[in-house]
Amino acid sequence: MKYFKSLVRPYLVWSFIVVLVPLFMIFLYAVTNSGNSLINIQFTLNNFGKFVEPVYLEVFINSIRLGLITVAICLVLGYSMAYIIARQKEKVQNFLILLVTIPMWINMLIRIYAWKSILEPLGLMHTDFAVMVGQICEFLPFMIIPIHTSLSKMDKSFVEAAYDLGANPVQTFFKVTFKLSIPGVLNGVIMVFLLSISTFMIPQILGGGQYMLIGNLIEKQFIEVGDWNFGSAVSLLLALIILFSIRWMKKIDKGEN
Amino acid sequence: MLKKLARISSGLYVALCFAFFYVPIIITMIFSFNSSRSFAKYTGFSLRWYQALINDSEIMAAVGVSVSVALFATAISTVLGTITAIGLSKSRRILKEWILNINNIPIMNPDIVTAIGLMILFTSLKIEKGYITMLLAHICFCTPYVITSVYPKIRELDNNIANAAMDLGATPFQALVKVIVPMIKPGIYAGMLLAFTMSIDDFVISYFVSGNGVENISMIVYNATKRINPTINALSTIVILAIVFAVVVVKLAPKVRSTSWFCALNEKIPKKTRRVFEAVCGVLIFVILLRCGGDAKTLKVYNAGEYIDDSLVTAFEEEYGCKVIYETFDSNESMYTKVMSGEKYDIIIPSDYMIERLAKEKFLQEIDKDRLKNLGNIMPRLMNQPFDPENKYSIPYFWGNVGILYDKTVVKTEDLEAGWEVLRNPAYKDNIYMYNSERDSFMIALKALGYSLNTSDRAELDRAYKWLVEQKERVNPIYMGDEVIDSMIAGNKAMAIVYSGDAAYIMSENENLGFYTPQSGTNLWIDGMVITNECKNDDLAYKWIDFMLEPQNASLNSETVGYSSPVEEAYKEISMTVYADNEAYVPRQDNQNDEFFRYQEPEIKRYCAELWTKVKSQ
Amino acid sequence: MNALIELKNITKTFDDQQILKGINLKIYENEFLTLLGPSGCGKTTTLRIIAGFDESDGGELLFDGIEISKQPPYKREVNTVFQKYALFPHLNVFDNIAFGLNIKKTEKSVVKQEVEKMLKLVGLSGFEKRDVTSLSGGQQQRVAIARALINKPKVLLLDEPLGALDAKLRKEMQFELKKIQKEVGITFIYVTHDQEEALSMSDTVVVMNDGYIQQIGTPTDVYNEPENRFVAQFIGESNIIEGTMIRDCLVAFDDFEFECVDKGFKENEEIEVVLRPEDIDIVAADKAKLTGTVTSIVFKGVHYEIMVQSKYRQYMIHTTDYHEVGLEVGLAFGPEDIHVMWKMV
Q1: Which of B172, B226, B464, C167 has the greatest number of C-beta atoms within 10 Å?
Q2: pLDDT band at residue B265, thresholds of 50, 70 and 90?
Q3: Cβ contacts of B178 on chain C, cutoff 8 Å
Q4: Residue B477's CB: how many other CB atoms inside 10 A?
């Protein structure tokens, strides 16, 4: 027992330095306005006050709206895909899931670049369509996999029982199959929402410079403008949005059970 | 019948989805074998881009960085994650929950938040950004994945397994190595695989924490997305094939392992593979030590992207037996931010107003003109400009102005007479590229309204803002960076705001285009070479400036990049040969309304930045 | 005779809960000693402290007269057979058994020889190459024993080793274990909660409860002369009656006085009396002091279990004779059937 306890110590120290301290520093930057010097710290809430300005509010609303649309489309496409896959024979299922996973292993930038090389000659670059297509293509596997997992784990006898009790296929689907796959759906929804709300490469590359989402705003503050304080405040808010959406989803999950 | 229909349609649907995933990838791969640069037409099979890939030292270095960082990060995070998971299973419940929660932070947090957290951390600790920071960051985000895949495997173990081994005489270490680790191997392999792919795929975190010219594959691809570059297709193809191969091998491995010949083979393999692995690691460590072991003479140059003929860097290195660390930036502003965050360079090549700012903030060395023997080669009228009187701090590198690049077949000449207002002509709705830069866009609006582009009058700026907003409403322009070059070569839009030099290059590739500078004035600019206070080797820095002022070097540079050279001889030569009759290569110099950008007061700057964000997010 | 292992006032606390409250115990060479008690009584903890997996908070642990409580498990001359065997699933039968010798870097040929010897001892010859996960519970059990014994420990610790086996196999293995112990001639310390197992195998039984040792003795001792109510109830079935010790060899309960053989109590001390169900005879109502009505009769295979309601309590009686429910009967027992215990505080 006692012999391996001390093995956690290196990670305890390490995670303190590279996980907690950075979070604390983001927080510190977010509530101060002294720029990159930490010598004369002045506390302020102005960085957060900026959020209510229409400009930045717009950025947040746009990001969340785009995130929700992406989630909705991915959910519809992903669920039907997962459902069809889950009804195949096991060997076919494994093969199809492998096909879904392979793109996930390929460098994301390379896949965005690949879309650029299709959209460019078609003259479709720098449009909402391009951004949507890019986002869906990147994130769809994250929806398919968890839904498929929960569908394929499902005991077939539930469906049979529903038929036995007189439910028609549509009722069976909504009352049994879909209900039972909700944990997978929630997982997928969280993943896709998290990814799409924080990305900055897809809008940057496929959408052109007029695309301003939360990720782009943060990147701009750190790389271009140099206002690390405001950038930190935005990051903090992004982290909070994600945290609350996860909490919320978990609550729904619990409520369902 | 109905069932059959359902089956066919669902099959079709699945096929479409997979097409959606794979067609872009396959097209990328196909065009890596294209004999021309175009993405639109396949002109024939060729391996020239693979040749180019091998010869591209920057990309090859990035491949090396990606692979070595991934290997080290995987090795370290696998060890760290595994021992942590083992320790965790024996820890008290409170500690266990606490660590597992911390462990979830990097997994659940958006990459960008993790990235800036680490960036702030490294900056505060004054750790120089580069290979080491990238490696540390990768270990940081890989370890949690190892822990989450190893920990469940340990929980499945009989609580007494380690005790049993120690009971039989094994020391705790032997129990760990001979019993626990072999039993949780599947979890460790899964974590390892996850860590490796996470590391090799990472862009966001590397992008923020790296520096000093250390780039990985993702960063190279990101920078390359601005221009069409089939070399990147070749790189992508190789990466994709490697990954597909690896995934297939991993997925098939369990099946292969059960066959008898593999069992027989397996008994002998482990030791060999371990030795190979050790050898690879050894070589890598050696390579990295070499990389870190300071070269006696290095010069760190920071220049805008696509702004030099690469062969000049190599030629300079050969001539003076030194190493040049050559880095590029997107805009003057991002350069400034990076420099202010502690990055050190010897030579930077910023624009006029930024030179003024850096000089004002005491960031630059005064240039000792006696140490430059080629100073006389520069056209006198480009010297002594208001942003740097007497050229105390800067030596011109390129110069030019900003204008409208237009498609002669689409844009009517009489429309152009409206000056900058042509950019708000509803006839060209959805047919205009603006430049994705706050200063250049405001310059256009201010000049269109007849103001100075250096105005600090907020009322004038507000009117300029209104001009831009109305423009957006009327013609819905797209704000572009360097991507505009390929887009205009392809003739995608009727008009684009471009710098004269880019215009010159684009026009040499697409003869339908013309370059127009409105009478109401434009931005005249000079980019200059400056030596920073941080410069460690000023002798080499002066040699670099002199080297760039050599007429034949200046010609070569100007020809490749398309910008106008400040070196008299080179300028004359190029404007008569390569870019003869190219109105963009010869920026006009006689208009009273043309102005240089000047240093903006921070307050005005911030005001403009906010207005600009507003314009873009309208 | 010197004790091989001696525990002196051992205490242990887990998460603010005192598991061992002062254990004193001597264990001798060649002894088959069983720690018996309900779950949570501290028997497994005692074993783990002897093995070295847990460290006691206080007290002394002597091995051959030397204090060893700080010694790590891999330096102690004891080996353990674990509850769920803790076999190494990544090793085959041979490598599992050879583990200890391989750790000591024993020569290959010796290892082979020793493993074969052990396999023969536990009756698994020919199983060398088998995957341990493919073995039955009983076979895994034997591998675990062989794996421990090959190290020639002075003491073998067994933590409820038969717990996972079915009843029939259990009986077989009990016999087998006893045989092995005789053959190798070392001390076995055996932990179980099964009193039958404890009584049939052990030389010495240590009954534990609530962190204390309740009684140490031979199986016959603890069965026939339990020292307190707990031991009496835990081992076998019993009727426990509160009473008063009038004087030596005379005890009073349920309104009557009975002769007995117990001495050494104070006069008129409150005590408890144990009457084993099989020691009570059912006789005609007028032939005994105690009388009652038969309330139930259940056939248990060899005997009947009869419940008789007397004035104050229900008595349980085991007898081979049948008595109808509702019958008025007398309960008879001799002086040597009465066992007087200290009253538990």
Answers
A1: B464
A2: very low
A3: 99, 103
A4: 27
| Dihedral angle sign, alpha carbons of residues B406, B411, B414, B420 | negative
- Alpha-carbon distance of C163 to A250, in angstroms, equals 40
User: B99 vs A12: CB contact, 8 Å cut-off?
Assistant: yes
pTM: 0.80
What's the mean pLDDT in B534-541?
88
Q: What is the per-residue pLDDT across C219-228, written as a single tens digit (0 to 9) for each?
A: 998 888 888 8
* Residue in A closest to C73 by C-alpha: A3
> What is the rounded CA–CA span in Å between residue B323 and residue B354?
27
- Mean per-residue pLDDT, B198-227: 86
Angle at alpha carbon of residue B203, lines to B197 and B204, rounded to 5°? 125
- DSSP, collapsed to helix, strand or coil, labels residue C129 as coil
Domains of chain A are: 51-256 (1.10.3720.10)
- In this structure, the strands spanning C328-332 and C290-299 are antiparallel
- Gap between the Cα atoms of B104 and B106, Å rounded: 6
Chain B CB contacts of A15 under 8 Å are: 99, 102-103, 143
pLDDT at A34: 67
Task: Give A-chain residues touching C72 at CB under 8 angstroms.
Answer: 3
Over residues B551-597, the pLDDT tens digits come to 999 999 999 888 999 999 999 999 888 888 888 888 888 888 899 99
DSSP class of B378: B
Nearest to B197 by CA among B273, B270, B141: B141
What string of DSSP letters covers C233-282? HHSS--EEEEEEEEETTEEEETTEEEE-S---PPTTEEEEEEE-GGG-EE
Chain mean pLDDT for chain B: 87
Domains and CATH numbers, chain B: 57-232 (1.10.3720.10), 298-398+527-559+566-576 (3.40.190.10), 400-525+598-616 (3.40.190.10)
Nearest CA in chain A to B235: A110
Q: Which CATH architecture fits C5-224?
A: 3-Layer(aba) Sandwich (3.40)
Q: Give the burial class of C184: count Cβ atoms within 10 A of its Cβ; 0-12 exposed, 13-18 middle, 19 or more buried.
A: middle
Chain B contact for A61, CB < 8 A?
no
Is residue A210 predicted with pLDDT exceeding 90?
Answer: no
**Does residue B39 contact residue A115 with C-beta atoms inside 8 Å?**
no
Among C77, C63, C52, which Cα is nearest to C7's?
C63
Chain B interface test: which of A15, A63, A87, A236 (most B C-beta within 10 Å) = A15
Class for the domain spanning C240-342? mainly beta
Cα dihedral: B452, B453, B458, B464 (round 10): 100
Domains C5-224 and C240-342 share a fold: no
Q: Do C148 and B160 touch (CB under 8 A)?
A: no
CB contact under 8 A, C88 and B166: no
Residue B436 has pLDDT above 50, yes or no: yes
Residue B2: both structure tokens together: 């109905």
Other CB atoms within 10 A of residue B426 CB: 8
Q: Where are the domains positioned within chain C? A: 5-224, 240-342
Cβ-defined contact of C103 to B168 (cutoff 8 Å): yes
CA distance A177 to B554: 70
CA-to-CA distance for B505 and B585, rounded, in angstroms? 9
Say which of A14, A108, A208 has its CB closest to residue B479. A208
Statement: residue B255 has pLDDT above 70: no
Question: A68 pLDDT exceeds 90?
Answer: yes
Outline where B202-322 has alpha helix (H).
204-209, 217-224, 230-258, 260-292, 310-320
Helix (H, G, I), strand (E, B) or coil at B111: helix
Interface of A with B in 158-217 (CB under 8 A): 194, 197-198, 200-201, 205, 208-210, 212, 215, 217
Helix (H) or strand (E) holding C10: strand C5-14
**What phi and psi values does residue B395 have, to the nearest 5 degrees?**
-120, 125
